[in-house]
Design a protein that fits this description.
Length: 360
Amino acid sequence: MILEKVSLQTDFKNYDLLKLVDQGGCSSKLPAAELEKALADLPEIKDDNLLVDISTHDDAGVYRISDDLALVQTTDFFPPVCSDAYDFGQIAAANALSDIYAMGGEMLTALNMVLFPANIPMEILKEILRGGQDKVAEAGGVIIGGHTIEDDIPKYGLAVTGKIHPGHIITNIGAKPGDVLILTKPLGTGAIISGKKIDLTGDDTYRKAVETMKLLNDVGAKIMNRYGTRCATDITGFGLIGHAMKMAKGSGVSIRLDAAAIPVIGNVIELIDMGCIPGAAFRNLEFTQNECAFEPSVDYNHKMLLLDAQTSGGLLICAPPEKADQMVEDLKNTKYPETAIVGEVTKLTDKAVTAFNSRN
């Protein structure tokens, strides 16, 4: 029904892609708990050259080609997460490329992945593809083809191939007690987009969220490599606490997150307080509740922020304490001025992740 109303518009530039979806971006992921069940009984893949596979739920797979070259491969696509088609193309591409950067890799090529309705103007598809192409070009890569099928709701993303030295791979399972946790982008995209759909999000906060999602993690990857980082992940659909939980469980450690230290986009806390909470946050709560704890000092709004599904979020980086301050300064002086230390890695306790608020 919504599609029929939108299709009557004559000027494709006035299309609001958010009106086509209930859940967009990484909020549209399958529930993590159900996905784990589906993957649990798949046969183990055995190949001596497969350096990183699906067993650790890492950001990308890594396959060795030679002693000094490995391919980093990933794919990601989703329904619209913003109103404008060109912005959507850029965000979807940046999100897909982020998995390469989270591993410390360098982007090479990409393939477009497109699902698109037949009853809305092709100019919209062209703008989505133009956005993706421009973002890939910004990353120094090339789009070499793709595949398109018809679907009721537009969806776009990339299958990406990157490269990395086999000895320099960054994974999500190398956290060590004493490490400091650094976050490179502010949180809140899921709640902000939820508020935008019901006209509660102001233009300034919305545009900040869009620009944050369009921001590549490429420079972050270079800085991680410069400091010899061995453990990191990017923050997307499972929220900060969900991705921290995966890191902690894979590394055999526990993590403490300081809700007061987490950078936020605009007035997202106020939006959460007004009820702008996507369903994905509650699915993330179900996924993490047995392994994660919130101390009484963490209020409800910050709890939901930690669970908020992010699209094209920042990097969560493990850094030795003696390097952390300089690393934060380097990140702030490049593309990521809101970079902050948000927690620490500890020895294994009864919970994978504990959230607290140092101001309460």
